[in-house]
Amino acid sequence: MKKTAAILTSLVIAGMSCVPLAASAASSEFIVSPVSDENVSASDMSVFSVEVMKLVNKERVSRGLPAYKVLPELIRAADIRAKETVKLWDHTRPDGRGGLTVVDDLGLEWNALGENIAKGQTSPASVMNGWMNSNDHRASILSRNFQYFGVGVAYSGGMYYWTQVFMGSSDNFPVAYYPEKYGDTNNDGKIDSIDASLVLKEYAATSVGKPYTLKSSERARSMLNGDNKVDSVDASIILKIYAKNST
């Protein structure tokens, strides 16, 4: 099996001033799972993403801080950035712009932004352990300047790449939900096969040009993998979360 050092870097933007924080290597090493890129599915990575978001709020709530809400656009932003860090391991994007310009690209209004990136860790728990043991990364996770966030995960060359994008905004986003709600399409307090069936029904309708079968709030809770659409991948993620919660 291949070993790799777990690496973390953090970036915070408040207003228009950019403060890049020094990269830091984690003190321990993690074993990368010996699987090929083809065997790691998009739904696997999205399940990891949801788990990281839950762990972030667990840390916040345990310290008396309000939980972050998830925006579908920030899941999209984090997913884009995770894939970009595979190409260029930096807070700079492959096109030369700053990493957090991804939020502007998606048309969001903000007053503070933050980004944590990491590579080499093989589970949500291990990457969160690394971030929480780094002052700069922990500061973003526990910040009072942000209300919204998203997490993206990519996998390439036997290694996971992790990104958190945080945002502070005075805007109210009606489609922002707590991580526990993602996948709960019908908002009945549980994530199960019924939610997956509703997602597949929506996908079947929209695939042939028929109107949406879900309300906007239901669609927002169903878009789990950051691609801004409801489809069979989301249904697969929901079923994996359901299976995990059932064990």
TrEMBL record:
Alphabetized GO MF terms: hydrolase activity, hydrolyzing O-glycosyl compounds
PROSITE patterns associated with the record: PROKAR_LIPOPROTEIN
Pfam families linked: CAP, Dockerin_1
Domain SCP: 54-166
Keywords noted in UniProt: Signal
Superkingdom, natural source: Bacteria
Coiled-coil stretches: none
Biological process annotations from GO: polysaccharide catabolic process
Signal peptide as annotated in the record: 1-25
InterPro entries: CAP_dom, CAP_sf, Dockerin_1_rpt, Dockerin_dom_sf
Protein name as it appears in the record: Cysteine-rich secretory protein family protein
